[in-house]
Specification:
Layout: H1 15-26, H2 30-47, H3 56-76, H4 78-87
Helix pairs in contact: 1-2
Length: about 90
Amino acid sequence: MQSTSTNNALAYKNPAMDALLTKVRAATTDQEKKAALADVQKLVNETVPFIKLGAVTPVRALAEERARRQAHTRRRDPLRQCLDKVLS
């Protein structure tokens, strides 16, 4: 949810959130990190009406990898190539 992050699929921009995320990254102990994350969660609850179902980039990367593997398998499998020709 960092304003400048390429993984910010929601296009959420909030200078207060940016500052809190910097605070999370700068935390040196578990207690500091938990406190900073609690502040992040509080700001999310107050400012962002959404339900996050999952990360976008990894899902996209997995889909691309799956397609690549399927294409590779089809190139190697003569039966699959034959079926593709018959069915197309």
